[in-house]
Specification:
The structure holds two protein chains of two kinds.
Chain A: H1 6-12, H2 16-23, H3 27-41, H4 56-82, H5 92-111, E1 120-121, H6 130-151, H7 158-181, H8 197-207, E2 210-211, E3 217-218
Antiparallel strand pairs in A: 1-2
Helix pairs in contact in A: 3-8, 4-5, 4-6, 6-7
Chain B: H1 2-32, H2 40-46, E1 71-76, E2 80-83, E3 92-96, E4 107-115, E5 121-126, E6 135-139, E7 143-149, E8 151-156, E9 161-166, E10 169-175, E11 177-179, E12 188-197, E13 207-214, E14 226-230, E15 240-243, E16 247-248, H3 251-260, E17 266-269
Parallel strand pairs in B: 8-17, 11-15, 14-16
Antiparallel strand pairs in B: 1-4, 1-7, 2-3, 4-5, 5-6, 8-9, 9-10, 12-13, 12-17, 13-14
The chains are: A mainly alpha, B alpha+beta.
Chain lengths: 226, 270
């Protein structure tokens, strides 16, 4: 396992199985839609506004990072609350979750009102299954490190770059730890490659982990007993 | 005797060689420990500017806070049979559909989870069906993502009060109207299914919550006889036993409840 991604995870069925159970679609359709639907499903990755002090592109990069951090934080938080993983994995959700939540807080504070809202998530049972959890954690951490790496050269503010690098190295440590636990080589390559935003979006979209909030409100006249 | 003199000379020679070696070593250490001129690489490094301060401070890891009153809910993603046990062979309790009569997502309160003999994950849920209090098991794949709430609403039929708890601490208490003896408000464990607003009906006030509780008397009521929690155009009747089973609050109280209570909140009526 040199460069595990969520897309590659699908070969093992960790994601595809859940998707097919839900939607009944074929693997071909699933992978095809993953590429096409990335932008649509991850509209939250777009920057909603511009901070006075920060270049628009830097705001967009921060919001992109924030959405990935939301995803990771929600994943570990839900797993920790459910207590569905044990053994040597037991300390992973609380430890990584605490760090990802800190990343969310820091980036949200930096963006202020320009921060994207937290999306809804549906982990489709992955947070309730030990082996799926571990494989997804490997993929998430690899993806997080690759996403930060690809954006680093695009960041205009050197102070923001310093912050991004400080988060990126933590994501890389997480990735190495998860790879070790999964029996994969922690650092298989001499040089890591970043993943462009479009690729990251498509991979995340292919998981269907980011979903719309279910409709819980309406303006219909009540028919309750009164 | 000559043999003894030769031995002494050999010892003296050995001592002299040893002393010379030690002296050479001391000199070498002194020479090598003298400050040397910096290499070009070191000089270049010393000339680099200081690294900028990070634009955002990454705080300490944020541990998950204790949430004793936390509860999870999930939307029904596809129509599915809720079963008595976590097994496809178990009898059906009811059929769950995706939407409510109010056209919101149908949600269920999550009580637990288990795997069947084939490894399939099942979720134990509270059901919005009669008789009140029924629970059932649905495959995890039939549900959407989980929602988390930290609130709990307690309806006290004796004291005629509604108390909203957050993390088991009261944050709102209000007088209420409940069902008349002929149409009693059902007791038991329920949850908030949806929230209606911007409709035109002074009778229900500005805001109404739908619950999973159902009247066991008014079973032919339009929409299935679900019990709501809503405002009123007759606040002078509160507190009292004045309704057809719904829980009525003064309009200012229902608006405050609407600000504090999310959909999915467990409801205890006792």
């Amino acid at each position: 396992m040199s460069d595990l991604t969520l897309g590659e995870l699908d070969r093992d069925g960790a994601i595809r199985e859940a998707v097919e159970q839900v939607s009944g679609e074929t693997r071909t359709a699933f992978l095809g839609r993953a590429a096409v639907g990335g932008a649509a499903l991850l509209g939250a990755l777009a920057a909603p506004g511009r901070s006075e002090a920060t270049a628009a592109s830097d705001v967009a990069i921060l919001n992109y990072a924030l959405t990935l951090e939301y995803l990771q934080a929600a994943f570990y938080t839900e797993t920790e609350r459910f207590g569905a993983v044990g053994g040597e994995l037991k300390r992973v959700p609380p430890q990584l979750g605490a760090v990802e939540r800190a990343h969310v807080e820091a980036i949200k504070a930096a963006l202020g009102r320009a921060a994207v809202k937290r999306p809804a998530f549906d982990f489709q049972g992955v947070t309730e299954d030990q082996s799926k959890f571990l494989r997804t954690a490997v993929a998430f951490e690899d993806l997080g490190a690759a996403a930060y790496k690809a954006q680093a050269p695009r960041i205009k503010s050197s102070a923001l770059l310093a912050a991004a690098v400080s988060i990126h190295s933590v994501e890389a440590r997480h990735a190495a730890w998860m790879r070790y636990l999964a029996g994969a080589t922690p650092a298989a390559n001499a040089f890591d490659q970043g993943k462009p935003e479009s690729e990251v979006r498509a991979i995340v979209a292919s998981t269907h982990f980011i979903v719309r909030h279910p409709k819980s409100t309406a303006s219909k006249r009540p028919k309750y007993t009164g | 005797m000559a043999k003894g003199v030769a031995g002494q000379r050999a010892i003296i020679r050995a001592l002299a060689v040893g002393a010379a070696a030690i002296a050479a070593a001391v000199i070498a250490v002194l020479v090598w420990s003298r400050p040397s001129s910096p290499s070009p690489v070191v000089e270049e490094a010393q000339a680099l500017p200081a690294s900028p301060r990070p634009a955002l401070s990454v705080p300490r890891p944020v541990r998950l806070r204790e949430s004793p009153g936390a509860a999870y809910w999930a939307s029904v993603r596809r129509d599915v049979s809720a079963r008595e046990l976590a097994s496809l062979r178990a009898p059906t309790v009811t059929r769950l559909v995706r939407t409510t009569p109010e056209e919101t997502a149908n949600i269920v309160l999550v009580l637990g989870r288990a795997r069947d003999e084939s490894g399939r994950l099942w979720v134990h849920v509270r059901l919005p069906v009669l008789p009140n209090g029924r629970t059932g098991w649905v495959p995890r794949s039939a549900l959407g993502g989980y929602g988390l709430v930290h609130t709990h609403l307690v309806i006290d039929l004796e004291r005629l009060t509604a108390t909203l708890l957050r993390d088991e601490r009261p944050i709102l208490r209000a007088p209420i109207g409940v069902g008349k003896p002929a149409w009693p408000t059902p007791e038991g464990e329920f949850y908030i299914r949806n929230r209606l607003s911007r409709y035109s009906s002074p009778f229900y006030g500005p805001l109404a919550f739908g619950t999973s509780a159902r009247s066991s008397v008014l079973t032919d009521w339009p929409g299935g006889g679900f019990v709501g929690i809503h405002g009123t155009n007759a606040p002078e009747l509160l507190p009292g036993r004045v309704s057809h089973g719904c829980v009525r609050l003064r309009n200012e109280d229902i608006l405050e409840l609407g600000r504090l209570m999310p959909v999915g909140t467990p409801v205890t009526i006792r």
